[in-house]
């Protein structure tokens, strides 16, 4: 099972064996044991110190068959081992409790406890805060002193190999409160980004699993919420979304809802603010802390929430609310975006929707810049402007998802950096020449030209006329490149500027020729179609769009200006999309790690509630449907039009990209059972990659259960043509990639399964319909097949998809019902 | 009808002084006019006076009837009346404030009516006394400012604005109103802005505030530094500018709606004609003029905002849902004579709603679209002097817009498409285009459509030369932008070409009549140069290669017009005379057009001869054109893409002076009416307090 997960380098092994208790010459295989999470507590038994002598004997069978846990249990007395393990964990707990408080109970006290660094009762409180920051280090240090009593499990947890994926897995599978509490504490030691990836899993466990797991997770979540507004909101949104499947009556009182309310009430402020304000309260807390220490974990968690409630009602804390509300701006921003989506949905035509969208966004612009940001972005920033005229309504039958572009200014930290000052729309060039010229990347002579016009502003008569400013405004964009259709500068202008009295003659034929050449040379754009407004916007190359919007923006001159885009979905449940994103991302990492050149493009998903969210758009990509409709060409011919003829380097590169992405997505489609694969849901980017979007039907769900799309994945003859036909080298390469990808994925199956499995908890999502979702998913990894057998399988799947008329049928069906080609 | 009776009574001022029974307030007025200090007999005289309901017409009439000497005798009393008025403005008792405001109104008006010939200084002396004038006016303006900015009663604010409007329009020529010098020093600009930036006050007083601002900006515009001009030009607060835009947008929309209603009424059957006749008995024909004139004031405000303030340009493109469809058609028509100033139209409360209303039938609109529609209505009929001025102002505003880079950018923005239903004059030879069929296009197409529409509908004996020149200039400016930024509009250029050629044709056939009044060569030169733009720079902005072919086709097809034009200008330019110079310019400009005609005509003839076709089809001609480009050489003319920037001074100064004068007269007339109707409101007010 998990045999391949832990590939220990000799160095790592040594490190593990350095501790005295590891006197036994345990082999590699024994170390691989704990990493198999599905086998519950059993791995613990093998690694418990009391039975360490038994390890050598048990190791050989383990090495061969990972499922051989049954044998293991025969060797070691489970009960004894379990006891031992508990003992150790108890000690760990005590150690920590010694330091101040147990991991779970430390939080609630910390809420207040950290608040008085200069409190009179000695050096304890500062110690706490230190511990809060590095709880695990602390533990580790202590445990080194007691190293003789270390367990194998602990040593695994302590080892470098113990990553977040394992932590999540143990958290989910372990039934031991001690282990759970330990891992909850251990979460603090991972990098934020690592944990963030598993945030949906963590929170879903928090909501739907038992108390112990929840208690283990909560301190970490609360701690992170205090640190980051973004994290707070993400948590609040996810908690809301994943609680929504509960029955309404239980939902109201569920832990998830409570935590969500707590976060949204904005009580989880950075503790630094509390340090200043809560001094008068300190006399109370020490006694309370000692009192809590004796409590069990369960009661502590209750006191945790009550404790926080109490602080809410505490007038001393109330006074701290005089500072700006942390979460409100962003929540309002998201709310207004969703509101727009809802209103758009009521309008009948695309044209009306588009117009309405533009006007709504122009109103939104009035409130910007503000301390708001796009959570899908990878860097800290403030949103300064929404170029409203660029927004488009996307194709959807009854809902109104829309795509907006957002101008942002990158900053150090969006919470602390000051919000940019608003620049009026018309101040495009004047500010450029006055304020920020040195850093805006204009060449010196351009700078000179804009400076030279500045004195004109002082001219009294012209001070408010548009004259010179007008001149100035056109010049700049033209220097960069032409504003509209990317034609190189022509000699026409220079001719006019010549002062010669000699008459200049030009041939009418030249004018006519230039006109047709210029139109021909513009990169192939799509024609504006009122029924499909997004096609043109999406076809425009991203860099081109960025440049164009930057030129038109009053903020464009700032060096930290960036353009982002986001799709706002209202009325759609994006939880499945998020799941698919996580699986894709995981597979991408696996393939990268295993050096399989498969190409996929997971796009970020932001779940805001169970029926709204945001999607990071794939740039430079249009749907194959749009490609075919606009170009009226076969896919292969379109490739030739875009990238050049066969055997040109561009074409070959594009073809390779196509094959690599095709193989990647075929595997994805197979493993996740992605359905509803019509051409509107498959994008083609400017480099030739295909990108599947819309994971609304995965795993156990399929559209309307029509029983179409029975083949493993979508492989049309057009696709095969682009790959160079059935007999081509590229087609073989395609199959080879699939095989390699499948082998690699199989090797790390647990990491993938785990993502899905945890999300199944308490979920009503259609993709988890039925009871066999996980089992079927596991089966598709074909753990029992040899590589030769896998190869046959891949051949079969490709063959099946090729011959499958259902694909064709489904396309026909889509064409008839939705007009998708 | 009691109210109308009263109004009628109020209008007949002279009769009111002959009432047998005198009110107490009238007796008190008499005391003021009786040379002696009224406080001599009654120390609480002034306190009591402001508790009395003002009798405006009596006071005004009394002032009017005095001659110069008499005035000087009671100057002290009038000075102290003015002084106490100003003092009363600070009173807590709001009735006193109201009465003081009205009394001031009567004072300003009465003094001016009397002293038509007197200088401004005499008036100031009479009202306030030279030595005190500065202080008094400072106090007055400060009180008004705090009343306007405070959170007091809305009707008080309204009355303050009326007083200011009254003061500003008290002379026919605003620049001769010397008292305004103090309004310049003690600026109430900020108060006006505050009214415009606040949603609710904007809805109630926005119109008056905007008109007041437009008038103040025009005070001694060309002679001195007007602080209102300076301040208006640097406003960059978007809510305020937006508010101003909303007020203008709303007033124009209201006009468009009224026009549309009337138009529909006229098109209706017999019954509706009958009702409209009955209706018109109430409306009186003054209503029609009223609506046009009030909108001139608002149009002036739009002009000043566009011309002076660069930031206002963004407001033009600010989208709002179309308001005119939402208004209830059930607005009582007889109330309309007072609507322009006194009552707030019901739809104004739309502006209170920060969330856009959710109505799928609402078309999104913006100020520019509304303005274009308004222009299309106004331009239909330019016979009337007011309408001519309105149309001229519309074209001037469009000129300013066409020169602005930001405005051009959004006019040509491919992503901002709108359906603009321009009004087209019903003409025999064309069908009324179905509204629904207008495609959604970038706004520049609507501007061009409007220009084309104007060109083809105004070729008449009373030739509006000035408007034509402006119209062609606007087109030229837009094309210059397109050329410069290489914007390719998918516009039906052919309509423009044929309109221009028809214009040339008209100029030719009416040469003698027109030459008596106008320099037609200037216009002809502009038109020919537009063609030169297309011919020599067509590659930079025409949408398709075939549109360039079509241009040639159109020129060749109408070659007779160009031939005749050439003959005419050649003839004039060879004769000595005042037109020699301008005519010869046109001959030079025609060189490329003639080259095209002379190049292709023989080719087409030979093609016809070779193929034995008598009449070539369009496609055949285009074929000939396409295959013969290479042997044609054109001459590049200088400065085709250069244009003179719009500047108000000195060329337009006269126009604006006259315009402001007519607006002043109009506003004055309306203010006096509405101030009276305010009485009703104040009665309620007094009973409450």
From TrEMBL, chain A:
Cofactor dependence: Mn(2+); Mg(2+)
Example of a GO biological process term: phosphatidylinositol-mediated signaling
Biased composition (Basic and acidic residues): 271-281
Record InterPro entries: Kinase-like_dom_sf, PI3/4_kinase, PI3/4_kinase_cat_dom, PI3/4_kinase_cat_sf, PI3/4_kinase_CS, PI3K_accessory_dom, PI4-kinase_beta/PIK1_cat, PI4KB-PIK1_PIK
PROSITE patterns, alphabetized: PI3_4_KINASE_1, PI3_4_KINASE_2, PI3_4_KINASE_3, PIK_HELICAL
One of the record's GO cellular component terms: rough endoplasmic reticulum membrane
Positions with biased composition (Polar residues): 297-318
Record GO terms (molecular function): 1-phosphatidylinositol 4-kinase activity; ATP binding
Reaction it catalyzes: a 1,2-diacyl-sn-glycero-3-phospho-(1D-myo-inositol) + ATP = a 1,2-diacyl-sn-glycero-3-phospho-(1D-myo-inositol 4-phosphate) + ADP + H(+)
Alphabetical list of Pfam families matching this protein: PI3_PI4_kinase, PI4KB-PIK1_PIK
Disordered: region residues: 1-64, 105-144, 271-324
Location of the protein in the cell: Mitochondrion outer membrane; Rough endoplasmic reticulum membrane
Enzyme Commission number(s): 2.7.1.67
Key words, A-Z: ATP-binding, Endoplasmic reticulum, Kinase, Lipid metabolism, Membrane, Mitochondrion, Mitochondrion outer membrane, Nucleotide-binding, Transferase
Ranges of compositional bias, category Low complexity: 19-62
Domain PI3K/PI4K catalytic span(s) in chain numbering: 540-806
Domain PIK helical: 62-265
Domain of life: Eukaryota
Mode of membrane association: Peripheral membrane protein
PANTHER family in UniProt: PHOSPHATIDYLINOSITOL 4-KINASE BETA, PHOSPHATIDYLINOSITOL KINASE
Family: Belongs to the PI3/PI4-kinase family. Type III PI4K subfamily.
Protein name (database record): Phosphatidylinositol 4-kinase beta
Species per Swiss-Prot/TrEMBL record: Cyprinus carpio carpio
Automatic annotation (TrEMBL), chain B:
Signal peptide from the UniProt entry: none
CC annotations in GO: cytosol; membrane
InterPro entries, alphabetized: ARM-type_fold, ARMD3-like, ARMH3_C
Keyword Transmembrane: yes
Region feature Disordered, mapped onto this chain: 326-346
Domain Armadillo-like helical: 435-671
Subcellular location per the Swiss-Prot or TrEMBL entry: Membrane
UniProt key word Transcription: no
Protein name: Armadillo like helical domain containing 3
Keywords from the UniProt entry: Membrane, Transmembrane, Transmembrane helix
């Amino acid at each position: 099972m998990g045999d391949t997960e832990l590939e220990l380098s000799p160095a790592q092994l040594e490190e593990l064996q350095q501790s005295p208790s590891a006197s036994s010459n345990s082999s590699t295989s024994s170390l691989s044991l704990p990493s198999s999470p599905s086998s519950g507590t059993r791995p613990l038994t093998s690694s418990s110190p009391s039975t360490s002598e038994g390890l050598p004997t048990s190791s050989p069978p383990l090495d061969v068959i990972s499922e051989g846990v049954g044998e293991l249990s025969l060797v070691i007395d489970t009960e004894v081992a379990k006891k031992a393990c508990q003992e150790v964990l108890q000690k760990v707990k005590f150690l920590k409790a010694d330091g101040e408080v147990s991991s779970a109970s430390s939080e609630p006290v910390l809420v207040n406890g950290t608040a008085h660094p200069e409190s009179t009762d000695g050096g304890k409180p500062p110690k706490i805060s230190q511990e809060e920051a590095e709880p695990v280090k602390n533990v580790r240090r202590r445990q080194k002193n007691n190293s003789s009593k270390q367990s194998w499990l602990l040593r695994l947890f302590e080892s470098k190999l113990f990553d977040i994926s394992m932590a999540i897995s143990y958290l989910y599978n372990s039934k031991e409160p001690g282990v759970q509490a330990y891992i909850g504490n251990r979460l603090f030691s991972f990098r934020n980004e690592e944990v963030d990836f598993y945030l949906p899993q963590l929170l879903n466990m928090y909501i739907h699993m038992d108390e112990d797991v929840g208690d283990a997770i909560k301190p970490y979540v609360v701690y992170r919420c205090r640190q980051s507004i973004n994290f707070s909101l993400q948590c609040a949104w996810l908690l809301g979304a994943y609680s929504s499947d509960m029955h309404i009556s239980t939902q109201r009182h569920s832990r998830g809802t409570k935590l969500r309310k707590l976060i949204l009430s904005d009580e989880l402020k950075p503790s630094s603010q509390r340090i200043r304000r809560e001094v008068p309260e300190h006399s109370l807390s020490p006694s309370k802390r000692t009192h809590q220490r004796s409590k069990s974990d369960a009661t502590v968690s209750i006191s945790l929430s009550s404790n926080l409630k109490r602080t809410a009602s505490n007038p001393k804390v109330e006074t701290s609310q005089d500072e700006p509300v942390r979460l409100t701006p962003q929540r309002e921003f998201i709310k207004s975006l969703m509101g727009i989506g809802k209103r758009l949905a009521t309008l009948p035509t695309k044209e009306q929707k588009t117009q309405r969208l533009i006007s709504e966004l122009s109103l939104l612009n009035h409130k910007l810049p503000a301390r708001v940001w796009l959570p899908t972005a990878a860097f800290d920033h403030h949103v300064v402007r929404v170029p409203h005229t660029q927004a488009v309504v996307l194709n959807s039958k009854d809902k109104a998802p829309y795509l907006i572009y957002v101008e942002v200014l990158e900053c150090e930290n969006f919470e602390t950096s000051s919000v940019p000052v608003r620049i009026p729309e018309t101040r495009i060039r004047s500010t450029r020449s006055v304020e920020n010229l040195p850093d805006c990347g204009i060449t010196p002579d351009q700078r000179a030209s804009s400076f030279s016009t500045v004195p004109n502003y002082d001219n009294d008569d012209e001070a408010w006329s548009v004259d010179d400013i007008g001149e100035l405004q056109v010049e700049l964009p033209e220097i960069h490149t032409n504003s509209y259709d990317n034609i190189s500068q022509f000699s026409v202008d220079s001719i006019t500027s010549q002062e010669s009295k000699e008459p200049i003659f030009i041939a009418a034929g030249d004018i006519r020729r230039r006109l047709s050449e210029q139109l021909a040379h513009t990169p192939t754009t799509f024609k504006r179609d009122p029924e499909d407004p997004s096609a043109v916007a999406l076809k425009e190359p991203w860099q081109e769009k960025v440049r164009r919007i930057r030129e038109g923006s009053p903020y464009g001159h700032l060096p930290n200006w960036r353009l982002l885009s986001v799709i706002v979905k209202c009325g759609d449940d994006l939880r499945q999309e998020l799941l698919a994103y996580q699986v894709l991302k995981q597979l991408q990492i696996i393939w990268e790690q295993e050096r399989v050149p498969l190409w996929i493009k997971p796009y970020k998903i932001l779940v805001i509630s169970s029926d709204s969210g945001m999607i990071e758009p794939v740039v430079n990509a249009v749907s194959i449907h749009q490609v075919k409709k606009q170009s009226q060409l076969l896919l292969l011919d379109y490739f030739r039009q875009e990238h050049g003829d066969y055997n040109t380097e561009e074409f070959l590169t594009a073809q390779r990209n196509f094959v690599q992405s095709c193989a990647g997505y075929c595997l994805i489609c197979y493993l996740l059972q992605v359905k509803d694969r019509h051409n509107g849901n498959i994008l083609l980017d400017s480099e030739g990659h295909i990108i599947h979007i819309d994971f609304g039907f995965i795993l156990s769900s399929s559209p309307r259960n029509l029983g179409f799309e029975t083949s493993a994945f979508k492989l049309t003859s057009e696709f095969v043509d682009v790959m160079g036909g059935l007999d081509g080298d590229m087609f073989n390469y395609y199959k080879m990639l699939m095989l390699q990808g499948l082998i690699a994925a199989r090797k790390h199956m647990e990491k993938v399964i785990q993502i899905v499995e945890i999300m199944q908890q308490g979920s009503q999502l259609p993709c988890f319909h039925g009871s066999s979702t996980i089992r079927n998913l596991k089966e598709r990894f074909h753990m029992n097949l040899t590589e030769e057998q896998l190869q046959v399988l891949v051949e079969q799947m490709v063959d099946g998809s090729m011959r499958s008329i259902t694909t064709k049928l489904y396309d026909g069906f889509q064409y008839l019902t939705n007009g998708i080609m | 009808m009691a109210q109308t009776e009263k109004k009628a009574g109020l209008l007949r001022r002279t009769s009111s002084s002959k009432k047998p029974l005198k009110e107490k307030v009238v007796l008190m007025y008499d005391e003021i006019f009786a040379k002696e200090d009224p406080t001599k007999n009654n120390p609480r005289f002034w306190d009591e006076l402001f508790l009395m309901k003002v009798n405006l017409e009596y006071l005004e009439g009394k002032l009017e009837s005095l001659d110069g000497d008499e005035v000087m005798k009671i100057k002290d009393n009038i000075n102290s009346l003015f002084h106490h008025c100003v003092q009363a403005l600070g009173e807590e008792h709001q009735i006193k404030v109201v009465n003081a405001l009205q009394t001031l109104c009567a004072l300003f008006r009465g003094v001016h009516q009397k002293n038509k010939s007197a200088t401004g200084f005499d008036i100031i002396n009479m009202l306030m006394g030279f030595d005190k004038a500065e202080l008094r006016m400072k106090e007055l303006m400060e009180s008004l400012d705090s009343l306007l900015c405070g959170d007091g009663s809305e009707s008080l604010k309204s009355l303050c604005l009326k007083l200011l409007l009254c003061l500003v329009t008290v002379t026919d020529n605003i620049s001769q109103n010397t008292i305004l010098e103090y309004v310049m020093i003690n600026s109430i600009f900020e108060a006006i802005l505050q009214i415009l930036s606040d949603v609710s006050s904007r809805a109630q007083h926005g119109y008056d505030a905007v008109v007041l601002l437009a008038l103040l900006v025009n005070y001694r515009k060309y002679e001195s530094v007007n602080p209102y001009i300076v301040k208006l030009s640097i406003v960059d607060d978007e809510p305020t500018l937006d508010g101003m835009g909303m007020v203008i947008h709303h007033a124009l929309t209201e006009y468009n709606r009224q026009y549309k209603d009337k138009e529909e009424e006229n098109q209706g059957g017999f019954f509706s004609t009958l009702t409209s006749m009955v209706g018109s008995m109430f409306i009186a024909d003054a209503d029609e003029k009223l609506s046009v004139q009030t909108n001139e004031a608002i149009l002036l405000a739009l002009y000043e905002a566009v011309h002076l303030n660069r930031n206002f340009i963004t407001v033009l493109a600010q989208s709002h849902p179309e308001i005119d469809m939402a208004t209830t058609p059930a607005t009582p028509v007889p109330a309309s004579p007072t609507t322009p100033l006194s009552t707030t139209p019901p739809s104004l409360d739309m502006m209170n709603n920060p969330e856009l209303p959710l109505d799928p039938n609402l078309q999104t609109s913006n100020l520019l679209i509304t303005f274009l529609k308004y222009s299309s209505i106004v331009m239909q009929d330019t016979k009337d002097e007011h309408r001519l001025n309105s149309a001229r102002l519309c074209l001037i505003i469009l000129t300013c817009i066409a020169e602005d880079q930001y405005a051009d950018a959004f006019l040509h923005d491919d992503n901002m498409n709108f359906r603009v239903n321009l009004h087209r004059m019903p003409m025999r030879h064309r069908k009324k285009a179905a509204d629904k069929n207008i495609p959604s296009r970038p706004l520049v197409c609507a501007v061009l459509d409007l220009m084309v529409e104007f060109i083809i509908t105004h070729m008449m004996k009373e030739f509006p030369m000035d408007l034509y020149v402006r119209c062609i200039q606007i087109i030229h400016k837009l094309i210059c932008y397109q050329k410069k930024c290489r914007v390719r509009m998918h516009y039906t250029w052919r309509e423009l070409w044929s309109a221009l050629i028809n214009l040339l044709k008209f100029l030719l056939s009416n040469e003698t009549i027109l030459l008596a009044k106008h320099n037609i060569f200037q216009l002809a030169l502009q038109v020919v140069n537009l063609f030169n733009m297309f011919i020599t720079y067509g590659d930079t902005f025409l949408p398709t290669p075939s549109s360039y072919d079509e241009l040639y086709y159109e020129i060749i097809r109408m070659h007779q017009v160009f031939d005749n034009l050439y003959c005419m200008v050649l003839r004039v330019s060879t004769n000595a005379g005042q037109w020699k110079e301008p005519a010869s310019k046109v001959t030079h400009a025609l060189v490329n057009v003639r080259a095209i005609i002379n190049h292709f005509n023989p080719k087409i003839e030979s093609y016809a001869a070779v193929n034995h076709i008598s009449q070539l089809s369009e496609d055949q001609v285009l074929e000939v054109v396409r295959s013969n480009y290479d042997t044609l050489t054109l001459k590049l003319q200088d400065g085709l893409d250069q244009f003179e920037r719009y500047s108000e001074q000195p060329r337009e100064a006269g126009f604006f002076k006259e315009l402001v004068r007519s607006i002043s007269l109009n506003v004055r007339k309306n203010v006096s009416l509405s101030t009276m109707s305010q009485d009703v409101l104040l009665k309620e007010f007094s009973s409450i307090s």
